[in-house]
Design goal:
The complex is a heterotrimer. Chain A has 10 helices and 10 strands. In chain A, the strands form 3 sheets. Chain A has a 5-stranded parallel beta sheet with strand order 7-6-5-8-9, with helices on both faces. A 3-stranded antiparallel beta sheet of chain A has the order 3-4-10. Chain A is of the alpha/beta class. The model of chain A has no long low-confidence stretch (mean pLDDT 96). In chain A, 43% of the residues lie in helices and 19% in strands. An 8-stranded parallel barrel of chain B has the order 3-4-5-6-7-8-9-10, surrounded by 8 helices. In chain B, strands 1-2 form a two-stranded antiparallel sheet. Chain C is α/β, with parallel strands linked by helices. Chain C has 16 helices and 20 strands. In chain C, helix 3 packs antiparallel against helix 5. Chain C is globular and about 65 Å long. Classes of the chains: A alpha/beta, B alpha/beta, C alpha/beta. Chains in contact: A-C, B-C. The interface between B and C is large, with 40 and 38 residues.
Chain lengths: 280, 313, 498
């Protein structure tokens, strides 16, 4: 009785709602702890990054026009779909050497992170915005507005939670996202694209690149059409250089580490204040 | 009846004879909410059949392509007189709409039928030629046998605030039409707001248009329920102020029967059944006719049909 | 512009046949109504301990639908005990993110069973299917969705305060928006870690009981939500129960005052969402067609069974005649009839008793010298119906000008200046809602700042959102539902450690 030959998955990039290989043709050889090859995962180049940013910019305006409730529902759906893919993601983590118990806890946390941020979307203005009691006959309102395109360096050793922990708050606030992860997170990063694609997230709102932080982050930090970078997954020694590059267009540089609280929410939005006179 | 005249912010337009008409503001969200509700009326069975037949009689079957030839127009005219080749109870459409060069062909093909010949004229679709050239084109189309002329509003002048120019050109076009019926296209997709659409509607009506029309069909944005409601309300208010009944033509992006029925509901509940007639209501469309025929067949047979069964025009 | 509802079929006139809109009735078979319903206590459906049952009927026909249990004091005792047990045994101390996920489940299940809930709501309560399907049920799901997201974010609910749940909530809801009112009560209560005893209105218990099924489908721990059906006495027993930590009541001002007296001195928390006599102000620069839609929506939506209805039109004198003429024409287009017909605009009056009350008000107005105008809508033969009605020629002191009718009846008065509009609008002991129509932004703000109401709508009406706090001032009650402020009603607050 011959053993069944399994159909092995191809791990690709996720850009503009589609799954291309890298335009460079390059790949990351992802191996198990025993050295056995698991897959050749697409390795994003600077041109892939450029395309991802273009897709993100194209999708961002319509995404931020949606009602916060709608964005929250979509994030919740992402959690639902991820829950359904638990076993696959746990297996992909175990394959790269993450112990089973840690992988299970990681998936628990990743789904819960999607749910946490789903529930933040329609509260953001209530928590970070305000009606301001100015000394004049005005209605003065401060609202949270998105920044635009957010580049997210996701920690290679952070599992699924490290990815969702940055992507979810970014898009919750109405931004679009370009995420980068490699190393131990490469397989789940690629699979996360499939989860995003089936969760009613409009094409281009989330773009996921498997690749090398050292190679891609300087290009991201230089890119004039990126409004924020979260360097939580960047090697610490890159920090100063990235901040200096970012200064060219004054994109925001943050390091949220995906903390589930208002600090992260604040990092992914800014405040617009409007005055309306109230006299007849 | 000028009770709104004193309202702050009311825009007044002077007709060629000096009579003023008053245009008021529009609230977009409430307009859209009402339009959505009207367009989603649930129209079934006898009401649906009646609506589909009514819609058919109000269609201006249109072809406005650079590649239109006499052969194409003759095929369209045949279709216009007999929308369902297998069911003669389906009535003919209201009109066929073509470019001026093909008016004579359409006239001959439609001889002896109830289907009218409509022609775009006046530098369609942009309307940016000189007024003399535009009027010349209108007269030529009428001379060739057009019963109806569809012109475009001068958006250049409208959006620059030269409202009297807009009005005067429409009035001149009406005169050039002679006995032919004038439809004025507002190109609502270019106007930016419902208030501008309402303003454009009033100017076109004040200047003597027999019908106001949404779009040329050459821009991606098309007729929508809120636009139709906005124009219908303008028509109703114009009639209340002047006693004159102007018609409404919706064009651009109307492909499905459900859309057509939604528009009929908007007309019925805004202007009343007096407007549900080809004299006062038209749908400028081409593929809509096929969808209506299929829907009528479904009503009769209870089976979903195959679009490929219908003639190509 | 009449809606000619001729019964004679198609004939030659296509326009007439089209515009009469033959009935397009939503199928009832998605709903299965049991002959008899018990109470939901401690996670189980059970018979009342002592009480009997009463009938619930379909107001559009008068037909009997089902027998509903009459909960007595003994049942209320059991329900409160079950809620207390569930609170102590785990709900209070459940990790907030876990509680959140239970409540997200409720939102999703409501969405899954949305059509069923909408059809049942229309059958039992009388409101048009278009409203229950497009407004009531989606808003209810949204309410659970919104509040689920607060469960694990309560540290942001009140700046500088540490929060804790209160305990057992006694919640009494009315018959005008049965599912929505249940959602408005249950969602924040649960999100804040409390447990619930819900007493639905006696004429509209069926959808509450269906929500009870959904609670069980969501696997909420038994006793977290309990439902005790019954009439006024059942509600009174719940409101007075010493085991309840907080009472939340939506209903008439008269009963609200009774409850306030009962609760006095007990230390129990109380929120009241009571009646209203909403002023709807229209200035001469308003977008007229849209203002007419707003007026119609404000008073004829849900048959006027709306606490925040815009039931007092205040129209600027210069446009009053013109506006009224247009309003009357618009009223003729309102289709009154079968709630399950998708084209119905105005459904059935909820009960015979309510129909009598409305009729008395209007007859009284006539005898006090007012002019009554009603639409010409034909009415079905069976069931409880009232035509859309305008009352003009008021001085302002008539009973109908001051008291809540809770029906499709609009009083009309005029004003000259902004100040006069504000004075007339505020001349009421109520203060739930108000509306303003004008195209000038600064006038909107000037007016909204001065209208004494908990909710003010400008160039719109009857907009509701889970994120938007709702509630009244003065004798329309106190406390808010929805938004961040609505959470405070369901929490104990202590200053956070410095």
């Amino acid at each position: 009785m011959s053993e069944r030959v399994e159909v092995r998955k191809t791990y690709k990039l996720f850009i503009g709602g589609g799954f291309p290989r890298s335009e460079s043709g390059r790949t990351l050889a992802v191996k198990g702890p025993d050295g056995k090859l698991l897959a050749h995962v697409a390795k994003a180049s600077r041109k892939d990054l450029r395309e991802a940013v273009r897709a993100a910019r194209g999708a961002q305006s319509a995404w931020s026009d949606r009602a916060p409730y709608n964005r929250g529902q979509i994030l919740y759906r992402l959690g639902e779909v991820m829950e359904g893919r638990r076993a696959q993601l746990i297996a992909e983590l175990e394959d790269v050497g993450v112990p089973r118990a840690a992988a299970e806890a990681d998936l628990d946390d990743a789904v819960d992170a999607a749910v946490y941020w789903a529930g933040f979307a329609d509260k953001l203005d209530q928590i970070v915005g305000a009606v301001n009691p100015v000394a004049g006959p005005f209605l003065n309102l401060s609202n949270a507005i998105p920044l635009g395109v957010c580049g997210l360096s996701c920690p290679d050793e952070g599992g699924a939670t490290g990815l969702v922990g940055l992507i979810a708050p970014a898009i919750m606030a109405g931004n679009s996202a370009v995420g980068i992860a490699g190393g131990q997170a490469a397989l789940v990063m690629s699979t996360l694209g499939e989860i995003v694609a089936t969760s009613d997230v409009p094409a281009g709102v989330v773009n996921l690149l498997t690749g090398d932080h050292g190679q891609l982050l300087p290009w991201l930090a230089d890119h004039a059409d990126v409004d924020l970078i979260d360097v939580s997954g960047a090697p610490p020694e890159m920090g100063e250089d990235l901040e200096r590059r970012a200064a060219e267009n004054l994109k925001r540089v943050v390091r949220t580490h995906g903390a589930q609280d208002v600090r992260t929410a604040n990092a992914f939005c800014e405040i617009k204040t409007v005055w309306h006179p109230a006299r007849i | 009846m000028a009770t709104l005249a004193g309202a702050p912010g009311a825009l007044t337009i002077e007709r060629p004879d000096g009579q003023p008409v008053h245009v008021g503001p529009v609230d977009a969200f409430a307009l859209e909410t009402r339009a959505k509700r009207l367009a989603s009326r649930s129209v079934k069975r006898e009401s649906k059949r009646a609506g589909l037949l009514l819609a058919t009689t109000c269609i201006d079957l249109t072809t406005l392509e650079g590649g239109d030839t006499p052969g194409k127009v003759r095929a369209l005219c045949a279709r216009a007189t007999r929308p369902d080749p297998d069911d003669l109870t389906v009535p003919p459409v209201a009109a066929v709409c073509v470019y001026p060069a093909l008016v004579a062909v359409a006239r001959e093909a439609l001889q002896g039928t109830s289907v009218r010949v409509a022609s775009v004229a006046g530098s369609f679709p942009a309307g940016q030629a000189s007024i003399d050239e535009r009027l010349h084109e209108i007269r030529a189309a009428v001379a060739d046998g057009a019963d109806e002329i569809d012109i475009v509003l001068n958006r250049n002048a409208l959006l620059a605030g030269r409202l009297e120019v807009v009005r005067d050109e429409v009035a001149a076009s009406k005169e050039a039409c002679g006995h032919a019926h004038l439809k004025t296209i507002l190109e609502t997709g270019e106007l930016g707001s419902y208030e501008m659409i309402r303003r454009a509607s009033f100017i076109a009506m004040a200047a003597g248009s027999d019908m106001i029309k949404t779009s040329t069909g050459k821009l991606p944005s098309a007729a929508t329920p809120p636009v139709a409601l906005c124009m219908a309300e303008a028509i109703r208010d114009f009639e209340q102020q002047t006693g004159e009944a102007v018609g409404l033509k919706l064009a651009g992006g109307i492909r499905r029967s459900k859309q057509a029925l939604g528009y009929l509901a908007i007309i019925a509940e805004t202007l009343g059944t007096r407007w549900l007639t080809p004299e006062r209501f038209r749908l400028g469309a081409s593929s809509l006719l096929n969808d209506i025929v299929l829907q009528l067949r479904f009503q009769t047979t209870g089976r979903y049909g195959r679009p490929g069964d219908l003639p190509v025009d | 512009m009449t809606t000619a509802r001729s019964q004679t079929g198609t004939g030659e006139n296509l326009a007439e046949t089209f515009s009469e809109y033959v009935p397009s009735v939503e199928a009832r078979d998605i709903v299965s109504i049991k002959p008899r319903y018990g109470l939901l206590i401690g996670g189980e459906e059970r018979e009342p301990l002592q009480g009997g049952a009463f009938a619930t009927i379909e107001p559009s026909s008068g037909d009997h639908l089902a027998e509903i249990s009459e909960g007595t004091q003994a049942d209320v005792d059991e329900a409160v005990a079950a809620a207390r047990g569930a609170f102590e045994a785990g709900w209070r101390d459940l990790a907030p993110r876990v509680r959140a996920k239970y409540i997200f489940r409720l939102a999703r299940l409501i969405q899954d069973r949305a059509r069923e809930l909408a059809v049942l709501e229309s059958i039992d309560g009388g409101k048009p299917i278009r409203e229950s399907r497009d407004i009531d049920i989606p808003l209810s799901a949204a309410h659970f969705f919104y509040h689920a997201g607060w469960a694990d974010k309560l540290e942001y609910a009140v700046p500088g305060m540490r929060t804790a749940p209160l305990g057992v909530m006694g919640q009494i809801i009315p018959w005008n928006f049965p599912v929505l009112m249940a959602a408005w009560k249950m969602a924040p209560a649960l999100a804040c870690g409390n447990t619930v005893v819900l007493k639905p209105a006696e004429t509209t218990s069926l959808t509450a009981l269906l929500l009870g099924e959904i609670v069980q489908e969501a696997d909420l721990p038994p006793g977290v939500v309990n439902i005790v059906t019954g009439a006024g006495e059942t509600g009174a027993a719940l409101a007075a129960h010493p085991g309840v930590d907080k009472v939340a009541f939506t209903g008439s001002t008269a009963v609200g005052k009774k409850i306030a007296r009962q609760v006095a001195g007990t230390g129990r928390r109380l929120t009241l969402e009571l009646g209203g006599k909403g002023a709807h102000v229209v200035f001469d620069d308003a977008a007229l067609d849209q203002a007419i839609e707003g007026i119609v929506d404000a008073i004829f939506f849900n048959q006027g069974h709306v606490c925040c209805a815009g039931s007092r039109l205040l129209v600027q004198e210069g446009i009053a005649d013109h506006l009224l003429g247009r309003l009357k024409q618009r009223m003729e287009l309102l289709r009154v009839g079968d709630p399950l017909d998708k084209n119905t605009d105005v459904g059935a009056i909820n009960s015979h008793a309510q129909l009598q009350r409305i009729t008395e008000f209007v007859e009284g107005a006539e005898s006090e010298g007012c002019a009554i105008h009603q639409s010409g809508a034909p009415l079905p033969e069976r069931g409880f119906w009232f035509r859309p009605t305008l009352v003009t020629g008021l001085g302002g002191s008539e009973r109908i000008a001051r008291e809540e009718v809770f029906g499709p009846v609009l009083t009309v008065q005029t004003f000259r200046t902004e100040a006069e509009a504000v004075a007339k609008a505020n001349a009421t002991r109520y203060g739930l809602s108000a509306g303003v129509w004008t195209e000038k932004g600064s006038r909107i703000l000037w007016m909204t700042q001065r209208l004494k109401a908990g909710v003010v709508w400008a160039n719109t009406f009857n907009q509701f959102d889970a994120a938007s706090p709702f509630g009244g001032v003065r004798e329309s009650g106190f406390g808010r539902e929805g938004g961040r402020q609505g959470l405070e009603e369901y929490l104990q607050l202590e200053p956070a450690a410095k």
